[in-house]
């Protein structure tokens, strides 16, 4: 593909967005941008600093004071906050349970969206999140809305947790994911929803490679227009 595209991938928690986006970006030779990691990094720092994740003013001040870096590596994306590698720390249950509250703060979302647009200035990016196609990159050439059943998403999260040594039941994970879905879709600031021009993909019965290849096929079609 001669000309790079902006590819926006949105969807609910544990839909496989980050995994698919990383593979897609790698195969296309594009830059991968994990916006969820940015919100998690802010949440992690807020919890470390004893800042209320529902306090928009305090979170905005903190966001102005810290530096969040997303660095590619052979083992995946490295996330740093003020030089500290927090790649694993931001995936803790404590951060996971609070990140939706952080992401619901209107001015925090505005500033994050500005930072994300700056990262996507150069064509040839795959960016995933909750409001990429609707708010962050509304003019992206390819928009994907990816989802799966709650049970399937809980199963994927369960497998991820087992690899990290986190022991939580499927019932707990289903409840957590349902709560996050409700919070993400009902928040006032840039709620999770499918962009009008996004392609809907239900990944429940698809493999990771099948989903990535499907997106790449759509990207190739967009490039040929």
From TrEMBL:
Catalytically driven reaction(s): CMP + ATP = CDP + ADP; dCMP + ATP = dCDP + ADP
Cytidylate kinase domain sequence ranges: 7-220
GO molecular function terms noted in the UniProt entry: kinase activity
Principal location listed in the UniProt entry: cytoplasm
Gene3D superfamilies per UniProt: P-loop containing nucleotide triphosphate hydrolases
Entry keyword set: ATP-binding, Cytoplasm, Kinase, Nucleotide-binding, Transferase
Residues binding ATP, per UniProt: 11-19
Keyword Cell wall biogenesis/degradation: no
Kinase in keyword set: yes
Catalytic class of the enzyme: transferase
EC number, as in UniProt: 2.7.4.25
Subcellular location: Cytoplasm
Similarity section: Belongs to the cytidylate kinase family. Type 1 subfamily.
Name this polypeptide is given: Cytidylate kinase
Species: Sporosarcina aquimarina
